[in-house]
Specification:
Chain lengths: ~625, ~300
């Protein structure tokens, strides 16, 4: 047997059937993977990467079928197998790790039962042997308490842990090939790095051949030996990681790289325009804000407190980035400002005037001047309205524009967000994700707002499309002088567009300062963790950063003080016993001008956070 | 400012997508509208047939209303009386055609009332403050717990039977169900982001209910309307069978069955034919609704 493990030749996959017209999803793809090698399939959504990955298991999604070519895995022609043959193939040769582990597990059974199920189902080993093997894999994947974690149920472990358990399930039968389908896309950066480190190690230990599907070049750069770049179902480029990253041959690869690199570092030029007006009252000022959900108790605190003592201010024409992991309260912050969630305490001042907590207490002008843009353009646009209706409503509502005048303005708005005028008569279902997000933005702009609250506006989009939206936001800011509150979990997008940044952790503002605070230490330990967890677009980054978030933490005893302790102390690598678990952290000002909530001084933090190199 | 590199490549969000995707979407939409299943088509034909009969039945009837056309009661099928004659010797075909307007018309009126009022109240409850929603929901829960037949019997015993009364009773009996369906649909839609955007824009609740929510729930509500129609036909036919529905000399199909029940032992078509009429109307409506539902009728607004 040669050392070629996977050989895909002229693979064509079509969707639909002969009656309704077929469309080709995969148009003649060739690649080979050698034994023990990690190949990455990279491309935007709709590029056919998952479809190709699934074809290695002899599987097509409902409505798709193989139209030609061959897929050989370890000498077996996968496409010609019958049902029994395919079952045997999936038992021993190929395993699959899906994107959403939460949807991949049965919530009613323990993890161990589900992990060993493939081995038992295919009668490959006894129950005891399988259990022992599973524990071994849990250990290799750096899961906490490997001996007992199998007794838990899926909802009792975190998303990142579940993803690793899923990898254990795939590896239990010692497959020759493992297909990873965007396994870290749904995870926070800090979790992603743990999962990537675990995957990389286990692949090496087991010696499996892996196919890694992703849209994120930086992640792929860490995991893969070779990269196949896909676009529209065709291979654009295929080569070693170094060659693809450093000397891309194809124009499309260069565009992808440019879009990724572009997100890092390029600042908004809007600052100059804003400088003139910056002297007077800030556009939005928030002081001591607390908010949450559920019943309000006697002291005015909600049952679930999501935001606690948050302060920020946004100057006219500037952009504030709000960073944090999922669950940190970023979205709630935007909703409080928009009036959709009522605050429990604190002040929100808009141009120096207090903003009513509830929507009904606000003036029409306040409604108009604060606009909200949601993450998911699919649900943010009413599917039964045309784009013209969607954009026409704020025009009629705020300014009484109707008829020809409104039509003209809609044309201008579409032009502003770089959509063709013909879009106006369509419905959202006829638009792509990027187009929908532009309409979403145009609707906010129709009100001619002073402040736009952008809630993860690029998170659901591909790199290239997301970069174009960021460009658009930057241009709009320069041309119209609007301010943004830009909420994101992605540091590089915040860096690309914002002047100032605040970092939220568990509803508290742990750091606030200029954008450059993200570039160099000292940071708040949490900011440091976030910044260090973002994969850089170069090889070997993961090996250099495998300690991030994984190292042993300084021991601290149980909390001794009451009151408001630092919420990050359970994960902090710079914690101090006797301080962090006893006293609330003081507000410090670092030499860079940033404010942090931490017991450590700037010099101590600087010593703990080594200067990063070129990153 | 020099533009970034990626603007030079064809952008998925601008050119490529435009024509082809729009054409496919349009084709898919048209396909969905026309592609009723065979059963759906049969159902549509039956329902249309009976609706036409309700309007034009009296004109098409071969004999005058109430005319004693034959000396024989419970006559069998013949060319003069294709559906036989009833217990007084009246032409059965004419009776059914004339009765169609009572059965179909009454049921349609009551179903429109029930669905219309129920949907409006459900929407209102969904967009209103929580206590309004709670109060309305509990009230309708109480109403829904009364069996519709019992409610009808009590109401008729108290107020007597008349056509407006029957319409009212049928409507009241089926408002709570329509309310529940529309409220649960509307509550789901109210949490979607386009509704939040409208609220943040400062829109009035009436506008949100009418423009943002209602169009996205109209398909399931229409399917529900069809179901209510069928239930009401059966309720009214049942009441008429008990002698509490439409009063003689007028007769809906339920009354026709009851009047001619004596012919059962003689195998008279007079008792069979109105039953078949009821069956075809309800089965036809059900077939139509089922196929509507399968074609995305019950899909949520988000992915329609």
């Amino acid at each position: 047997m040669s050392d070629v493990m996977i050989e895909v030749k002229g693979l064509r996959i079509v969707a639909g059937n002969a009656n309704d017209g077929m469309s080709e999803i995969v148009k003649g793809v060739d690649f080979t993977v050698k034994k023990g090698e990690v190949l990455a399939l990279i491309g935007e959504s709709g590029s056919g990467k998952t479809t190709i990955a699934l074809s290695l298991l002899g599987y097509t999604r409902f409505g798709c079928s193989f139209a030609g070519g061959s897929v050989r895995v370890g000498g077996t022609d996968v496409l010609t197998l019958d049902d029994a043959g395919r079952r045997a193939l999936r038992a021993r040769k190929v395993a699959y790790v899906a994107q959403s582990a939460a949807a991949g597990f049965n919530p009613a059974r323990t993890l161990m039962d589900q992990v060993i199920e493939p081995a038992l189902l295919h009668r490959l080993m006894s129950r005891e042997a399988a259990r022992a093997k599973a524990v071994e894999l849990f250990r290799a994947l750096a899961l906490p308490a490997p001996d007992s974690i199998g007794d838990r149920y899926p909802h009792q472990v975190s998303g990142g842990q579940l993803q690793r358990v899923m990898a254990a399930m795939a590896l239990i039968t010692d497959p020759a090939v493992v297909v990873f389908d965007e396994p870290t896309t749904a995870l926070d950066v800090t979790t992603q790095i743990e999962v990537l480190v675990a995957f990389k190690r286990v692949i090496k230990e087991v010696g499996a051949t892996a196919v890694y599907v992703s849209h994120d070049l930086a992640v792929v750069a860490q995991m893969a030996d070779r990269i196949v770049v896909l676009n529209g179902g065709e291979v654009q480029e295929c080569g070693d990681v170094d060659q693809v990253l450093d000397a891309p041959k194809h124009e499309y690869t260069r565009a992808l790289l440019a879009a990724s690199a572009h997100r890092e570092g390029r600042a908004g030029q809007g600052r100059a325009a804003a400088a003139g007006a910056a002297a007077d009252v800030p556009l939005l000022q928030i002081r001591g804000l607390a908010a949450g959900y559920g019943r309000i108790d006697r002291h005015g605190n909600p049952a679930v407190c999501v935001l606690d003592d948050v302060n920020l201010s946004i100057a006219r024409g500037s952009a504030l980035g709000v960073i944090g992991e999922s669950g940190s309260g970023k979205t709630t912050l935007a909703r409080v400002v928009a009036g959709l969630v009522e605050r429990a305490s604190g002040d929100v001042l808009f141009e120096g005037k207090p903003l009513a907590a509830h929507l009904s207490g606000r003036t029409a002008d306040q409604y108009r001047r604060i606009q909200l843009v949601f993450q998911n353009a699919d649900t943010a646009l009413n599917p039964s309205h045309t784009i013209e209706d969607i954009l026409g409503r704020p025009l009629a509502f705020y300014k009484g524009l109707r008829g020809a005048a409104a039509k003209r303005r809609i044309g201008e708005l579409l032009d502003l967000v770089k959509l063709p005028a013909s879009t106006a008569s369509r419905r959202p279902s006829g638009l792509s994700g990027g187009q929908k997000q532009r309409v979403n933005l145009a609707r906010a702009l129709a009100a001619e707002p002073s402040l736009i609250l952008c809630d993860e506006v690029t998170s659901a989009l591909d790199t290239v499309v997301g970069a174009a939206i960021l460009d658009l936001l930057r241009d709009l800011r320069r041309e119209l002088g609007v301010s943004y509150m830009f909420i994101s979990h992605d540091i590089s997008t915040v860096r690309a567009i914002c002047d100032e940044v605040i970092v939220l952790y568990a509803g508290r503002r742990v750091e606030a300062g200029q954008r450059k605070l993200l570039d160099q230490p000292p940071h708040h330990p949490y900011t440091g963790l976030l910044v260090d967890s973002v994969p850089a677009l170069k090889r070997g980054w993961l090996d250099a950063h495998r300690h991030v978030g994984a190292g042993a933490l300084p021991p601290i005893s149980v909390d001794s003080g009451g009151g408001e302790l630092c919420s990050f102390r359970s994960r902090c690598s710079a914690r101090v016993d006797g301080k962090c678990n006893a006293v609330a952290p003081p507000l410090r000002t670092l030499p860079s001008g940033a404010q942090i909530l931490c017991h450590r001084s700037a010099d101590e933090l600087k010593a703990l956070q080594p200067m990063r190199g070129a990153a | 400012m020099n533009r970034p590199a990626q603007s030079s490549i064809p952008h998925p969000s601008t050119e490529i997508y435009d024509e082809t995707a729009a054409a496919t979407a349009k084709r898919a939409r048209r396909a969905r509208r026309t592609r009723l299943s065979w059963f759906g088509k049969i159902g549509l034909a039956l329902v249309c047939f009976w609706l036409l009969m309700a309007v034009f039945g009296p004109l098409l009837a071969p004999y005058k209303e109430g005319a004693l056309a034959s000396p024989f009661s419970f006559a069998n099928y013949s060319t003069a009386h294709p559906f036989g004659t009833d217990y007084l010797g009246r032409d059965m075909l004419s009776r059914i055609l004339i009765g169609a307007r009572y059965t179909v018309g009454l049921a349609l009126g009551a179903a429109v009332l029930a669905s219309g009022i129920g949907t409006c109240l459900g929407l209102f409850a969904a967009v209103s403050a929580r206590w309004v929603d709670e109060a309305m929901s509990r009230f309708f829960d109480a109403l829904i717990s009364i069996p519709s037949k019992v409610l009808a019997l009590v109401a008729i015993a108290a107020f007597g039977s008349s056509i407006p009364m029957l319409t009212m009773i049928a409507a009241v009996a089926y408002i709570p169900g329509a309310y529940r369906i529309s409220r649960s649909l509307a509550v789901n839609l109210m949490t979607l982001e386009y509704v939040l955007v409208a609220r943040a824009r400062g829109e009035r609740l009436f506008y949100i209910a009418r423009v943002e929510v209602l169009p996205n729930m109209i398909h399931p509500v229409l399917a529900d309307f069809g179901l209510r129609f069928v239930f009401i036909v059966l309720l009214l036919s049942g009441l008429s069978f008990l002698g509490l529905g439409v009063q003689p000399p007028n007769a809906d199909w339920g009354s026709l069955v009851r009047e001619n029940i004596g012919g059962l032992s003689q195998a008279a078509p007079a008792v069979l034919m109105p039953s078949i009429a009821i069956a075809t109307l309800t089965v036809g409506m059900n077939l139509l609704i089922d196929s509507l539902r399968r074609h995305g009728g019950f899909a949520q607004g988000g992915q329609k």
